[in-house]
Request: fold
Amino acid sequence: MKILVTGGAGFIGSHIVDAYIEAGHRVIVVDDLSTGNPKNLNQEADFYLMDICSKEIYKLIELEKPEVINHQAAQISVPLSTRDPYFDAHVNILGTINILKAALKSGVRRFIFSSTGGAVYGNSGGEIFTEDSPENPESPYALSKLSSEGYIKLLSMGKFSYAILRYANVYGPRQIPHGEAGVVAIFSIGFIEEKPITIYTYDDMERGMVRDYVFVKDVAKANLLATLRDDNLQLNISTGEGTDTLSLLEKLMEVSGKKIPYNFAPPRPGDIRYSIISPERAKEKLGWVPETNLKEGLRTTFQYFLNRA
Ligand SMILES: NC(=O)c1ccc[n+]([C@@H]2O[C@H](COP(=O)([O-])OP(=O)(O)OC[C@H]3O[C@@H](n4cnc5c(N)ncnc54)[C@H](O)[C@@H]3O)[C@@H](O)[C@H]2O)c1
Reply:
């Protein structure tokens, strides 16, 4: 199958590209390298340095006629989205509409979209969100992702099928330290450079905010499985397990064999307290389960940053 991956030089996108190529698919990557890294690019993929908001993407998609578009490219920073909601909406909403229009014109069969379970459901009181939980975006980033989901459903109607994958907090090798779950990358670098670590939290959450950490290779596998389907899907890609920031730090201390000082600071705008998301529907629809436990994933991630240092 010929698959076009936007954001394929980024953290998650590059692992998806690797999974597609390993499965024997032909891959075209579009990325403007704003946060992506050319070193992440799979050598067997064709690469186009291109902005998803540009007109050139039309010509490219018309020329290449991919069967599937997997849209990963985005502005991913929640704090940046609160500082500059215009830029966030420009890349995340208008960029997505641009890709959708090109997909409609070129006769794409399937559209895969990376959305965010970590943000669209908003803050939980400790309960586990399912796909039926109400959406409650609390940042421009969450809102731009939710709007994009709406445009995909509306514009695709009868023309192509879609899979909207709502990731929890993804972590793993190649992560840049300022995304949604950049905390694992930030902490790993902190351990290696022996710099004190800051845990952002609310006064009444002594062990830090709670997140659902899912390993990037498991996320790539979910994308691969979703690509092979033809039905419209909206699925959480998560573990269903919550980890507070201090426990995450303690696990990293274990796997790295290092101890490091840490301090607490108030939350940043848009920071949500609890985010735990059920993967049950992905299991039912795709036969997907997260295979990597947190300790194993943290060990692999820490080793990656250590080798890179
Ligand atoms: N990291 C997480 O925990 C997480 C959680 C939920 C959803 N997501 C979503 O997953 C996707 C991938 O995120 P990531 O963590 O790998 O981030 P990333 O920054 O590593 O990847 C984004 C990629 O998109 C590219 N890009 C950005 N703007 C572009 C533009 N205008 N034109 C072309 N390319 C552009 C970047 O250069 C980068 O390679 C994003 O859509 C993000 O919103 C991530």
Notes: The two ends are 37 Å apart (CA to CA). Residues 2-171+214-239+277-291 form a domain with the Rossmann fold fold (CATH 3.40.50.720). The longest helix spans residues 85-106.
